[in-house]
Specification:
about 300 residues, alpha+beta, eight-stranded antiparallel β-barrel, two-stranded antiparallel ribbon
């Protein structure tokens, strides 16, 4: 129970101190630190920072690549090394790769989406789907899984809303952003060494980036360790008049860790995690099936995460 509370606390405020988390949970800071170290070692827990594509006005694309079975891992690894990919997963028995890509408004879309894809005859097909509205997960906020904290505990950890200042990332921020993409809880002294800035400047700039929403923090975790062994991408065809309602319903499902409206032959993408395949079946038949407006669902089981949200 305490491990799940620590994970949810980090999802809400990735840089909250152990003393702050301990005070909210009613345990000592040493206990929180010990649990955090254990979670890092045994559950792959890692807090990472990512540019907030929504606040920064970036385009978000979902790329589907179908490959020959013996090429998928190599192509996925190449995509994972790109700084503009948010997560990369092998799906559908290992013959398909799904990844999302962040593109600044000034970027050359064609060059980044197509020109930089691995050039190999083992790549069978590519399709790109622009995410036009986010319902759940990522920069929208923590997902609804494992709601083990009470509302007052969530409120105590939640950062105040961003002010009216615009979210901006400049070139000088890149070393800081890169470092936090590897470890979002990296100390200020280390960040000072990476950026060449005084610690006071690092503190001030990081606070500005978080307060304006330019950066947000997320948590990577090995879902298998927490008992979620069935993970899948759902590509839904939804009647346009029902898009908002279906998106709101998905955002309220604890199985859903990400959901967005997209362009393409299907118009809603959702990432779901369930305990096992029978649990996934019940979710599809009992929660997705009855949603008014859902006309078709394609389910692509996720074989392995090559990249979650942090840099590799």
């Amino acid at each position: 129970m305490l491990d799940r509370q620590v994970i949810q606390a980090l999802r809400i405020n990735g840089r909250a101190g152990f003393r702050e988390i301990g005070g909210v949970l009613g345990v000592s800071d040493q206990t929180v630190a010990r649990r955090y170290r254990r979670l890092r070692e045994h559950a792959g827990v890692r807090v990472v920072a990512s540019p907030n594509a929504i606040a920064l006005g970036y385009e978000m694309w979902m790329i589907r690549l179908r490959t020959a079975p013996d090429a998928a891992a190599t192509i996925a690894a190449a995509l994972a090394r790109r700084s503009d990919t948010g997560w990369v997963s092998l799906t559908s028995g290992g013959t398909e790769i799904a990844c999302n890509v962040r593109l600044p408004a000034t970027a050359d879309r064609d060059a980044l989406l197509l020109g930089k894809l691995p050039r190999t005859p083992r790549l069978v097909s590519v399709s790109a789907h622009c995410m036009i509205h986010h319902f759940a997960g990522g920069a929208v906020g923590p997902d609804a899984r494992d709601p083990v904290l009470r509302p007052e505990q969530v409120a105590a950890l939640t950062l105040p809303p961003a002010g009216d200042r615009p979210a901006v990332l400049v070139d000088a921020d890149q070393p800081l952003v890169d470092a936090l993409a590897r470890d979002g809880r990296r100390g200020y002294a280390d960040l000072s060494a990476v950026t060449g800035w005084p610690e006071s400047t690092v503190r001030r700039r990081l606070a500005e980036l978080v307060a304006t929403g330019a950066l947000f923090f997320d948590v990577e975790v090995d879902a298998d360790v927490l008992g979620y062994r069935a993970r899948a991408l759902l590509w839904l065809s939804v009647a346009p008049a029902r898009l908002a309602a279906v998106g709101a319903a998905l955002a309220a499902h604890e199985e859903v860790v990400f959901a967005a409206a997209t362009t393409g032959p299907t118009n809603v993408l959702a990432t779901v995690v369930c305990h096992d395949m029978p649990d996934l079946y019940r979710y599809l038949t009992e929660r997705i099936g009855p949603l008014d407006g859902v006309e078709r669902v394609e389910t692509a089981p996720m074989v392995r995460h090559v990249k979650q949200v942090g840099a590799v």
